[in-house]
Amino acid sequence: MNSLEISADFLQLLTQYQLAIRGYIRGAVGNAFDADDVFQKTNIILCQKASQWNQDIPFLKWAFTVARYEVMGHFRDQSRDKLIFNDTVIELMLDDSEALAPQMEKRAKLLKHCLQEVSDENRSILEARYGSAQTIEQISQQVGRSIDGVKSLLKRVRKKIRICITMKMENPVL
């Protein structure tokens, strides 16, 4: 197996743009599990092609091009499924995803900030639900609340976070 020589500058850019690349792929693929597979394959290809990257081309544009081919390959490989998108639809989804990726990266950063405004107890409930994918029933047993109580709490906390992110997107100086 050949050893890859990857420059520190390349690794810094690859690390810097992980959220944008993942968001681009997720927006195009839709399914989180499939998107994660495509994202991993894309990162491998990016590393394998590190020496081919022309620094005159913005890194993110180049990475999106690599990701685009991986997404199209994913849909081609999934052609056995009943729901298949034609190439035109895939291209449109990729274009939309590329346009939204920078905003998604910013929203992800704001999410981290807004989560700090949530109480420790509520943040742990969010982590149980979305971080470790526990069911609402499991969480309700752990925290001693009714299922409806946990549902209501999650709804209120998600709304608070959504409002926080929206406000910071509209007025970043707050």
Give your account of this protein's structure.
The protein has helices spanning 8-16, 18-29, 32-48, 59-77, 87-115, 120-131, 136-143, 147-170. It is elongated, with a radius of gyration of 19 Å. Helix 2 packs parallel to helix 4 (59-77) and helix 2 packs across helix 5. It contains eight helices and no strands. It is mainly alpha-helical and 174 residues long. The mean pLDDT is 83. The chain has two domains: 1-101, Rna Polymerase Sigma Factor, Chain: A (Orthogonal Bundle); 117-174, Orthogonal Bundle (Arc Repressor Mutant, subunit A).
Unreliable sequence segments: none
Major beta sheet summary: none
What's the overall geometry? elongated
> How much is the radius of gyration in Å?
19 Å
Task: Summarize the amount of helix as a percent range.
Answer: over 70%
Number of discrete helical segments: 8
Between the first and last Cα atoms, what is the distance in angstroms? 52 Å
Q: How many domains is the backbone divided into?
A: 2
Main features:
mainly alpha, 174 residues, Arc Repressor Mutant, subunit A, 2 domains, Rna Polymerase Sigma Factor, Chain: A
Give the gist of this structure.
With 174 residues, this protein is mostly helical. It has eight helices and no strands. The protein folds into two domains: 1-101, Orthogonal Bundle (Rna Polymerase Sigma Factor, Chain: A), CATH 1.10.1740.10; 117-174, Arc Repressor Mutant, subunit A.
Draw up the topology in text.
Elements: H1 8-16, H2 18-29, H3 32-48, H4 59-77, H5 87-115, H6 120-131, H7 136-143, H8 147-170
Helix pairs in contact: 2-3, 2-4, 2-5, 3-4, 4-5, 5-8, 7-8
